[in-house]
Every structure is written in C-alpha cells, then in structure tokens.
Write a structure and sequence with these properties.
Layout: E1 6-19, E2 22-35, E3 39-43, H1 50-57, E4 65-70, E5 73-74, H2 80-84, E6 87-90, H3 102-107, H4 122-134, H5 150-164, E7 168-172, H6 180-197, E8 200-204, H7 208-214, E9 217-220, E10 228-230, H8 232-237, H9 240-245, E11 250-251, E12 256-257, E13 264-269, H10 272-284, E14 287-290, E15 295-300, E16 306-310, E17 314-317, H11 320-327
Parallel strand pairs: 3-8, 3-9, 6-7, 7-8, 13-14, 13-15
Antiparallel strand pairs: 1-2, 1-4, 4-5, 9-10, 11-12, 15-16, 16-17
Helix pairs in contact: 4-5
Residues 17, 19, 24, 26, 44, 46-52 line the site of adenosine-5'-triphosphate (ATP).
Organism: Fulvivirga lutea
GO molecular function, one term: ATP binding
Pfam families: ABC_tran (PF00005)
Length: 328
C-alpha cells in the first residue's frame, strides 16, 4: 500500500545558519512532503545538512527562507504545546539529568498532555506502558539513566518519543550506538510503528543497507543539488544513490561489497545457506563461482558438513578455511 495523506510539507525551504550576521545556506530549494504511515530515511554524506534540516523541521532553529507546513498550518504559528503534540523528536544530544529513572524519562513523553497539576490519566499510564513494551525496554525501567549503555539510552529516548504519541516522529541517527541486532530491531520497530499507527516517521541515517530494505522512501541529499525523494529501489536503479555517495567497493546490483574476482574459476554444487556462505568465502578469496570449471567443489551435508574437492586429486575438508588452502 502506498501512503498518501500529506502531514508535513516543506515549501521552497532554505536551511542554514547566521554567522557574523551573514547567512550561511546549507540546503536550499527543498520541496518535499512526508505522508502518514510511511518511514522515510534521510540520507547523505557527512556534513551535507541532515541535522540542520531536522532541527529546522522540529522548530529548534529558524529557516533562512521558505516554510514548514504541518497539517496545513505554518510551523511558526504553532504554540510550543501544539508542536509537542504533533512532532516527537529524538536528537543526538546527550541527556543531562542522568539521575532520572528510565520510567520517568519515558513518562516525560506525556507532558504535552497533562495539566498544570501534572497528573497522569489512565490513558497516559497506558501510553507509557505501551511505549515501554513496543521498544522492548521492560528490563531497564527501574534503572537510572547514568546506569545505561549508549545503546540502551538510545532505545529509551525512542521510547519517550513513542510515548509522546504524535502523528510525526523525527529521529536523528537513532541507530548510531546500536549493535547489529538492535539496529535491525529499531528500524523494524519504526517501520512497523509507521504502518500500525499511521505515523509519519523521518529518520536521518547512514545505514544504507537497512534503509534500502526497510524505508518506504528515501530523501537523498547531495552537495549542491536539491534533495531527491524516491522509492529506495528507484534511487538504486537510476544511479542517484551511486552518484551521491560515490560508492567505492559496494555493489548496488547485489547490495553487497564488490569483490575482486581475479584468482580463478570454481564450480560449486550445493544449496541453501551453506552454498551462500561457501560462495562468500570463495569470492572473498577472489574465486569466481561459475557453471563449469576445472576446480569442482561439492557440498556434502549428510552426516556432517564437508566439502568434496575434485581437482589435482580428490580431497575432503571440514572447514572453509581448509577448502581455501586446498584449492589455492
Ligand atoms: N551552529 C552552526 N553554525 C554554523 N555552521 C554549522 C553549525 N552547525 C553545523 N554547521 C555546518 O552545517 C553543515 C551541515 O551540518 P549537519 O550537522 O547538518 O550535517 P549532517 O548531514 O547532519 O552531518 P553528519 O552526517 O556528519 O551528522 C556542516 O558544514 C556544519 O559544519
């Protein structure tokens, strides 16, 4: 399903800074829309202006020109409380109140909704528990912030934003401190959240592989060109990703690292993940896996995993390390 209702519009927007009373334009000619129910990854090389645009969209810095329109209303006309009920933000800044508990920090997400007496309603309590559950941080709730690793703190900051329950969520490099499992988990969680709650989620990221697999759209910022917006796959096929990142050693046709296959050719018989990992080891050592070659390798998986090599006599080995030694 392709999401449609526009919730955020950037119109002729120019973002940047005022340095010594002079304007320093970082990104200009920005005309983009964010739609409900979609996860958009905002990508581009270091220093191109991703954080600058994100800070402008969430009102943390002023635009140099143009407009940010949120649900038909100009950002400049929204009160701080309206904005807090519309956009939740996870930035990369460090939290200063390390003595606060995880649960208290997540609960801060409800502050735009509570009155002067700061009394949580049953809906607030429900949202706090839901955010903790969705982000899988149950085991951390009673810890103090200073007791958390950078990765755990990152998930807690995302939980606070989820708890704020806004139609737009904006995150600046939310996977920066996470290990592989947590990176995949966080991106999948954001992608599911966009679908299940119809939120529009914009995240700046450098994770090209995960963005290509999970984003509904990519906003691609390159130096001196307007930001390009498209399906991840279209941006691969039309060469835009390649031209912005000038990828070296990453094969966009397969989504994998390019290998220098100059060592020789081998024929490989086998199937499933054993075949794929064998091919990976062979290619990493410069062997091109082809249909017919003098060196023939057969994967045997009956009693135990073995590789049967037919060339220069016959050999059976039980590790890929030994396989590479035999054929070299
Ligand atoms: N307060 C500031 N005043 C002046 N220039 C700034 C300021 N903050 C950032 N810049 C400049 O703005 C440009 C864009 O920075 P920004 O942090 O937005 O890039 P980015 O795409 O988020 O980079 P990265 O991928 O490394 O996080 C950089 O050239 C940076 O030096």
């Amino acid at each position: 399903m392709i999401a449609n209702k526009t919730i955020l519009s950037l119109e002729n927007l120019e973002v940047g800074y005022k340095v010594n009373k002079k304007e320093l334009s970082i990104l200009s000619n920005i005309n983009l829309q964010l739609h409900q129910g979609e996860l958009v990854c905002f990508m581009g090389p270091n220093g191109v202006g991703k954080s600058t645009l994100i800070r402008t969209i969430c009102g943390a810095q002023k635009a140099l020109s143009g407009s940010v329109i949120i649900d038909s209303e100009n950002l400049n006309n929204l009160t701080a409380n309206d904005l807090a009920q519309t956009i939740s933000v996870v930035l990369t800044d460090k939290v200063s109140s390390g003595n606060m508990s995880v649960k208290d920090l997540v609960s801060l997400g409800r502050y735009p909704y509570v009155g002067w007496n700061i009394k949580f309603s049953s809906k607030d309590v429900e949202q706090i528990d839901r955010a903790i559950e969705l982000t899988k941080i149950e085991s951390l709730v009673s810890k103090k912030l200073y007791e958390l690793s950078d990765g755990q703190l990152q998930k807690v900051m995302i939980a606070r934003a989820v708890c704020q329950d806004t139609p737009i969520m904006i995150l600046d490099e939310p996977t920066a401190h996470l290990d592989l499992n947590n990176r995949v988990e966080v991106i999948n969680m954001l992608s599911d959240l966009a679908k299940s709650t119809n939120k529009a989620i914009l995240m700046a990221t450098h994770e090209l592989d995960l963005a290509l697999q999970s984003a509904d759209r990519i906003w691609l910022a390159g130096a001196n060109t307007p930001i390009i917006d498209g399906f991840p796959e279209d941006l691969v096929l039309n060469g835009k990703i390649d031209s912005v990142f000038e990828l070296k050693g990453f094969d966009l046709k397969t989504g994998r690292l390019e290998k220098n296959l100059g060592t020789g050719k081998v024929q490989l018989a086998g199937e499933g993940h054993t075949y794929l990992w064998t091919k990976n080891a062979l290619e990493r050592h410069g062997y091109d896996v082809v249909e017919k070659a003098e060196i023939q390798i057969e994967i045997k998986e009956d009693v135990e995993l073995r590789w049967h090599v037919k060339n220069k006599g016959e050999h059976i080995v039980n590790t890929l390390e030994n396989l590479i030694k035999i054929i070299s």
